[in-house]
Specification:
Strand content: 25-35%
Radius of gyration: 27 Å
Structural class: alpha+beta
Distance between the termini: 36 Å
CATH superfamily of the largest domain: Bira Bifunctional Protein, Domain 2
Mean pLDDT: 96
Order of helices and strands: EEEHEEHHHEEEEHEEHHEHHEEEEEHHEH
Number of helices: 12
Helix content: 25-40%
Low-confidence stretches: none
Number of domains: 2
Shape: elongated
CATH topology of the largest domain: BirA Bifunctional Protein, domain 2
Bound molecules: adenosine-5'-triphosphate
Largest sheet: 8 strands, mixed
Amino acid sequence: MERTYSGELKTGSKALVKGWVEKIRDLGGLKFFILRDREGLVQITAKRNSVPAGIVKAVSKLGREDCVTVQGLVKKSSQAPGGMEIIPDKIDVVSKAASPLPIETSGKIQTGMDKRFDYRFMDLRNPKVQTIFRIRDTALTKMREFFESDGFVEVHTPVIQAAGAEGGATLFPLIYYKQEAFLRQSPQLYKQMLMASGLDRVYEIGPAFRAEKFHTRRHVSEFISVDAEMAWIDSQEDVLNMLERMVEYVFKGVLKDCKKELEELGAKITIPKLPLKRITYDEAVKLVKGKGMKIKWGDDFMDAEERVLGEVMKKRGHEWYFVVRFPSKIKPFYIMADGKHSHSYDMIYRGMEIASGGQREHRHDVMVKVMKEKGLDPSKFKFYLDAFRFGVPCHGGVGFGVERLVQQMLGLENIKEVIMFPRTPERLVP
Ligand code: ATP
């Protein structure tokens, strides 16, 4: 018999359901339990004399979180969740759950975050926790759909690299045969090299690693970066235009496909209104300073400053905006400078940077000069610099953190909530 999910049951028909025992009630002659599967809950009711004696016995032996399969007749029931119950004629225990359970799955009792991550497989049995990952899945699907329809080619570039793109401080070293290598901080150098290939528009969705030393609500050591790079741009504006259409598409898609999930989490989102507001770095610094923060021109925004700027911008009607023209001294060598400023941007959603990028420097000699000024050894980047010696179009792109997007969309305090098995300075297991 084919499996039916709890959300697809029809009264009067036979069904085979598979799932976990959420709750058991024993009223003597009437025993029932709630089975939980991916789609919801269903009550299994075993009344003495209405079902075979073996079934009543099987139900009385069940424990919470046992993994079971149940076959039976679906009947109307006003008291059961979903208005239906199953009168079982067969119950199989596929796997017993040990007792006591390490953490609660119902969400009624709060378990500390660390303990939840120690037993993440069980934490994920909480439907609210699962819902986060359904929404994340939809957001990623929509991003792919957008890129594919906008002329981008999906690529995969090496995760094991010889040189870092985002500065040495956050590199994870590893031994690669007999030489030192690093986990990538981003696919930056490779996606740029592909701009010299003629593919014109590429995107990559994959892991990026940062040996972040600090503990914040938005940093982890491993995250999924959505990277895109486009050639033959007239200016950074071409990238911003693509990016805002991408988030608009994602939000439309999530609102349409995840109504139930958003409701379940109490998340209220709206479709971003295009064009998104652009403010310059200089303006942003002034606004933040005006709120008593100690930021100086030339500093990057820290979490607290980003939040304050977010509040000011929200009052002005912008929960989304771009901060553009950052000082070139705080940007990596591959960003095109324009005097003291640069052709760069951060994309902010609800007071948090979720993406950043810019127009890239494509002039070989200028890049070599900037690398030296930033204390980098160009000879270590020969593989990359070569791509700029034999004809490369002007180009620009984005690095976009999926987890931060979903975190902000759902109003979650910590980014770890959006990651199945988060990696932080303290956590390498599970
Ligand atoms: P921040 O200033 O917030 O530390 P960053 O400037 O180092 O971020 P980029 O190098 O520009 O970040 O990376 C692009 C995007 O990747 C960020 O906007 C963010 O969404 C995501 N990202 C970067 N570092 C992390 C991290 N440690 N954890 C989660 N997401 C990250």
